[in-house]
From TrEMBL:
Superkingdom of source: Bacteria
Pfam families on file: DDAH_eukar
GO molecular function per UniProt: transferase activity
Protein's name in the database: Amidinotransferase
Gene3D superfamilies for this protein: L-arginine/glycine Amidinotransferase, Chain A
Keywords, in A-Z order: Transferase
Length: 261
């Protein structure tokens, strides 16, 4: 995770960002601290990436890489405003002994990649259409040695995979069908017949931008209907308030890069 010490909405690179809407920096830090403390309280270890001035979106740490078995496939950001973040993530991983694969193709890390180690022998779901380019999926497959399933995102409000789909455990997912092309919806239905489906109201509340450890599902507090659906499916929802960071187009998952050493 990376503190939102420099968080601001100074430009608009997704439909949720509005530079004219005021941001409360102190509240953003308080809400982020609440998320970090929630994860620690659930028994998870949280490592920190130092925020850098001039990079207001660094708080969205998930976008810096995707990791599998000690290898980090790094990010190459679509927009110039975020491009310098990639070097900070690379330095963090290399300083800690990870094998780091620098990308050639544009991709935004776990923003557009979800790893399920027990689904069909282990696979990566990968989004494209707005940020990550399709050739990056092949590059990730070579870097990480896992089959990659490409999913076409068609609604600009769901510009990253991680606002439209999330891994609930090692083999199953929750997603909002309307974020995907008809063909990609068919693929998801074939791969995950028991998937949890989210309603549009919860998807638009960033309810799918969640983190799950297979039992506890940490998600935006506004996604109340989805919390009930997850509870009925046997998971334990853990709501958190991140409304201030949502002004930047992200929520729980965007703030958390999952480490798989």
């Amino acid at each position: 995770m990376c503190s939102p010490a420099h968080f601001a909405v100074e430009y608009a690179i997704n439909p949720w960002m509005d530079p004219a809407t005021p941001v409360d920096p102190e509240l953003a830090v308080k809400q982020w601290d609440g998320l970090r403390e929630t994860l620690i309280g659930l028994g998870h270890e949280v490592h920190l990436l130092d925020p850098e001035p001039g990079l207001p979106d660094m708080v969205f740490a998930a976008n810096g890489a995707v990791t599998v078995d000690g290898t980090a496939y790094g990010a190459r950001f679509r927009h110039e405003q975020r491009s310098a973040e990639a070097a900070a993530h690379r330095s963090w991983y290399e300083a800690r002994g990870w094998r780091f694969v620098a990308p050639v193709r544009t991709n935004e890390g776990e923003g557009d990649f979800a790893y399920l180690p027990e689904a069909h022998g282990g696979l990566l779901l990968a989004g494209y259409g707005f940020r990550t380019e399709l050739p990056a999926h092949a590059e990730a497959q070579e870097a990480l040695g896992r089959p990659v399933v490409s999913l076409h995102l068609v609604d600009p409000r769901f510009y990253h995979l991680d606002v439209a789909l999330a891994a609930l455990d090692d083999a199953n997912v929750v997603y909002f069908p309307g974020a995907f092309s008809v063909a990609s919806q068919r693929v998801l239905a074939q791969l995950f017949p028991d998937a949890v489906l989210a309603a549009d109201e919860d998807a638009l509340a960033f309810g799918l931008n969640l983190v799950s450890d297979g039992r506890h599902v940490v998600l935006a507090s506004e996604a109340t209907r989805l919390a009930g659906t997850l509870r009925a499916a046997g998971y334990q929802p853990v709501p958190v308030e991140l409304a201030e960071l949502r002004k930047g187009g992200g929520s729980v998952k965007c703030c958390v890069a999952e480490l798989r050493p």
